[in-house]
Amino acid sequence: MAPALAQDWGDTPYVQTPQNVVDTMLDIAKVGPGDYVIDLGSGDGRMVITAAKQRGARGFGVDLDRKLVALANRNAARAGVADRAVFYQRDLHATDVASASVLTIYLLPEVNLMIRSRLLATLKPGTRIVSHDYGMGEWPPDYQTELAAPGKTVGIGERSKIFYWMVPGRAAGRWLWRLAPDGKPVEFELAVQQNFQVIDGTLKAGASAARIENARLAGESISFSAVVDGIRYEFSGRIYSHAIEGKARVTRGVASKELPWDASRTEIWEPRHMSLTSEQAVKEIH
């Protein structure tokens, strides 16, 4: 897999990803038989071919280099996975990636930033993105690591970095629900602000409020806690459009009770990252 070509930034040379880096990227993304892998800048095809042959996945890759695309398709046929790993000569900016459950990239940092807003807008929440060597600017990775990359021809010391993200759902907004932990209904209100997968906000229970803690958004899974008037509330669930279904744990002193949790979104707020244009994003590298 190679750094892909960007129309606004000129050509970049093909750089082969060492096989151990390919394997690690697929490991981090937990690629399996149910996955559809799209590789932007697919080079000799080894990312999608490995995903198909060793993990039972399907997918395709794109590259602007016609000879590399032909090589990748020959490699897929030789590996016996041509029915599940296909390669096209295509500009990554014109590639529809909405069908991906896993997106793999080895692109220049400015190209990552150019496509970031499109990935966030078009990929389904929960889609995994794995990048070789370069991050996504202000979008913090959910995980990153560094490893030896024997035979790597760029960089220092034959080392590679790997960055991993899960596309976040949309949690921003005002949410309302009711719980009756002691038999008496209590009205709850959650006001959530979101920037990428980072969420913060305020939980109101009855007439009192507190900042939420331990907030986490992973795809459409959401969890957070708060202590209001000495009572600890822990919520976890899944976002379904403008509803959340999950569980609530209410702890008062040593007594704890678990209840079903259903919330409805009454106000929709745009996550902060949605207002960033590609041009604004590219400025993050300067």
Rg from Cα = 22 Å
Low-confidence stretches: 2-11
Mean pLDDT: 93
* H and E order: HEHEHEEHEEEEEEEEEEEEH
Number of strands: 16
Within the largest sheet, what's the order of strands?
11-10-9-8-16-15-14-13-12
Provide the β-strand percentage band: 35-45%
State the secondary-structure class: alpha+beta
Q: Provide the helix percentage.
A: 10-25%
Query: Biggest sheet: strands, sense, closure?
Result: 9 strands, antiparallel
What gap, in angstroms, lies between the N and C termini?
26 Å
Shape: elongated
Number of helices: 5
Fold and architecture overview:
With 286 residues, this protein is α+β, with helices and mostly antiparallel strands. 18% of the residues lie in helices and 41% in strands. Strand 2, helix 3 and strand 3 form a beta-alpha-beta unit. The strands form two sheets. A nine-stranded antiparallel beta sheet has the order 11-10-9-8-16-15-14-13-12, with no helix packed on it. A seven-stranded mixed beta sheet has the order 3-2-1-4-5-7-6. It has five helices and 16 strands. The longest helix has 14 residues.
